[in-house]
Structures are given as structure tokens and as C-alpha cells.
Amino acid sequence: MGQPVNIGVVGCGAISAQYFQTIDRLPQLRLVAVADLDLDRAREAVAPYAGVDVVSVADLLADPRVDVVLNLTIPAAHAEVALQAIAAGKDVYCEKPLAATAEDAGRMLRAAGAAGVRVGCAPDTVLGTGTQTARKAIDDGLIGRPVAATATMLTPGHERWHPNPDFYYVPGGGPLLDMGPYYITSLVTLLGPVTTVIGAASRMRVKRTIGSGPRRGEDIPVTVDTHVTGVLVHDSGALSTLVMSFDGVATKAPNIEVHGETGSLVVPDPNRFDGSVQISRLGETGWHELPVSAGYAEGGRGVGLADFATTPAGREPRTGGSLAFHVLDVMESLLASAASGAAVTIASTCDRPEPVFLDPSDWQPGPS
């Protein structure tokens, strides 16, 4: 394996704990430094891990030990931090979405290309056994030629439990930008890139009330659509129907279903690494669980970072920037279609990411 890849983290909010746990257990990665606007929060976040420096963002970017900058800031800051890291000659891996806008994401990718560094992005949950087992079933022809898919995420809104939910209701947030990356990345992994979208959207309320924490009872403005639906036309010819909502109460719809000419799959929650894959085949009765057959076993947030960091030069990482940009382009185009009432052709494309083969006895990120 050689020497581990040294990671510097910018942003020590709630999601950072999951990344730190994964980095700590993977020999391919080593956490060397963290930075946050609140240095006390950064110190608290890395207290369980010995030998990690807590520094300013400028010092982290100047640190010659740092090979990859893990950007865990809020979406509105993704581009700014990433561009600084790229200017410092560092590879960058961002939390989703790649940036608050496709325009900013494009600037990041162009700057990275000019600097000779790479950009990667979450979500990496699609590399787990849930989505990858479903993908293998499709690739092995268990449901025949894919015809369609449905993807549904419906919740009353994160303000009910999140003490500082403001960013969910400003540009870069909303149900589509918040949760859409999980679902659309999964759909692209399962069915390939998207060529055209048709969207519709609504905004049920102009304000939300925080339900927990010290700001409980405070109203915050809503400046984005909170219910988005649409159809994605994949290059393969399959049609995916998407519903992303912060306005509903509950649903019994599967997170994702994929329908083929000879069978249908229930795909587990794309916000998780594992989960049961169910299949119903033409001529058979009922649904049957498929055995785990692909994906990184016991995955956690950060396996995509490991996959990205250990992918050989010249190969596109499974969680690479072109995939993340395409997903963001699809989401923005859905909103544009919703505003105009017309179908939108997707300007970008990407390769369908390479599959992850199952080998729980020898967990090795990076394309096989």
C-alpha cells in the first residue's frame, strides 16, 4: 500500500465525526490537520485522535504534509475553500453538493484541470453494499433491460430536529440540493448519465419554525422550493421519476425502485451504505431478498475519500468531480425546467462509475 495519504479537513461540523472515524480505521488515510472558524469546536472534534494539528485554514493549505483537503464546510463555502486548496496545489474532496451552483462547480473543475490536481465529492454511500448489490443485479441481467425507476424522499423538514437549519432553506439547500445528490448519484450509478429533465416545484411556506435547541420557536425564511418532482431521461433510455420534498409527512414508497422488462428491484436508502435489495421476477410470486454481492462492506462516510485518494493517476475515481458536476447540473436543470415549464437538455455528462466488487476480507478502495 505504501505510505498513507495525508488528509487535512476544513470544517468540523456534525458530519466531520463520521469522517474522522472512518479515516482513523483505514490504513490508506491519515488525518494530520483540521481547521474551522471555531477553533474550540475543531479541538473538541479531534480530541479522540492523537497527533492531529488544529490550525487556521491558511496554515492547513500551506502545510506540505497535506495531500488532500477534505472540504466539510457548508455548501455556500464549498467553491471558495476548494479554489483556495486548488491554488495551493492540493487535491480536494468535498461534501455534497460539489458547490452551491453549477457555475461555481465548473470554476472548480477548470481550476483543478489547469493546476493538475483532482476534485472529488460525496456522496459515497453509493459505494456500499446496498446500491452496489442492486447495480450488480442490473449488470447481470436479473431484471432484463431497465425501463424505469422511481426515487422518493419525503420529510416534514429538518427544522423539526436540527438546531440551526437555516442553510436548508437558502440557495444551495432545499430538498433537492440537500438529499438529491444521494438519489441522483444512485440513479446514475444504476442507470447511467441523464440527457434531459422535466421538472415541477412548489414552496408551501415562506417561513419555518425551529423545533429544537437554543433557537427553538424562532422563525427562519424559506427562499427555495421545498417540493420538487420531475422525470430524468437517461442516456440508456430508462426514465426515472423523482420526488424530493420537505412538505409531506410520511411515505410508504421505497426510496428507489428500478423496473426492467423481466423484473423489478427495491433498492435501499441511498443515504445508507447497506440495506436489503429485493427482487421480483416475471413469472415468480412475491419479493425475494438478494444476497450481498458487491460494494464496500461495513462502509462509512469517508470510504469515497479513500477510493478517491487511492485511485491511480489517469483513472476517474468513482466519486470524481465529473460525476458530482453532472449530478449538480441535473438538479439545477430540474429547477430551471420547473421555472420555465419546458424540458431542459443536460449540457454535461459523465461515465457511469466503475462497479465495486465485494471482497470483505480485503477492503481496498480504488478502482479494481
UniProtKB/TrEMBL annotation:
Residues 132-265 form the GFO/IDH/MocA-like oxidoreductase domain. It holds the Pfam family GFO_IDH_MocA. The keyword Cell membrane does not apply. It comes from the Bacteria. Keywords: Oxidoreductase. InterPro entries: Gfo/Idh/MocA-like_OxRdtase_N, Gfo/Idh/MocA_oxidrdct_glycsds, GFO_IDH_MocA-like_dom, NAD(P)-bd_dom_sf. This is Gfo/Idh/MocA family oxidoreductase. It comes from Nonomuraea rosea. Residues 5-120 form the Gfo/Idh/MocA-like oxidoreductase N-terminal domain.
